[in-house]
Amino acid sequence: xxxxxxxxxxxxxxxxxxxxxxxxxxxxxxxxxxxxxxxxxxxxxxxxxxxxxxxxxxxxxxxxxxxxxxxxxxxxxxxxxxxxxxxxxxxxxxxxxxxxxxxxxxxxxxxxxxxxxxxxxxxxxx
Length: 126
Prior knowledge:
alpha+beta, Immunoglobulin-like, four-stranded mixed sheet, 1 helix
């Protein structure tokens, strides 16, 4: 009987630990740091795995505020922008700003700044 109780306890503990581990992995938010200089991002392309990200945007010496746009490749008009990926507030000279959490699935995206303005750069999610 004692072995049965210990066995049930171990099964219950293992189930709880596994469920908590899965929940914690699901809630992990990774930060992607990007720098903007005058008219460009210093990172010309990015490859990520599927998941949830927050983008940190640094304005390095640009003499005005900058932003961040992320959109599916080939669909860069404002209607297709991933709104969660906008910076929460435009980024002043020599400061950093963040986006909200963005969950990305497999595919090709582009990122750019219309305020700086920069070219469109490739972000691939595998």
